[in-house]
Amino acid sequence: MWDTQNPQMHVGTQRFTTSDEHLEFLARHGVHNMSVSDLTFDRDRGWDAAEIAQKREKCARYGIDMEMVELPTPRLNVDGAQVPHYMRGDWEKGEREIALVCKMVRAAADAGVP
Question: pLDDT tens for residues 1-20?
Fold first, then answer.
């Protein structure tokens, strides 16, 4: 919660992985929040909640809060294009992509990522 009487900087990153080397670097430099994008992506189920939870716990061991995960938008298109079908107006394929994103959001929530 933002305290207007005692504002503090919120330092986070979106460009590092959950490798020990990266987490040690972030912790050493006072970064306590991060977005993660190095999750295994499965075309049918999206992400695995157990993998997300494992990475979240690993981050916590370094004092870092994994507060979000990055959607792999360029990988959602089944035909290999960088832009998903739902952004291109192909509603038939786009609906499947949106359903997959919903599964991924649920997996993140199940793993404790807000």
Answer: 667 888 777 778 788 999 99
Structure tokens at 55: 């990475």
Q: What is the pTM of this model?
A: 0.84
Task: Let me know: does 39 contact 51? Beta carbons within 8 Å.
Answer: yes
Q: Say how far apart CA 24 and CA 47 lie, in whole Å.
A: 25
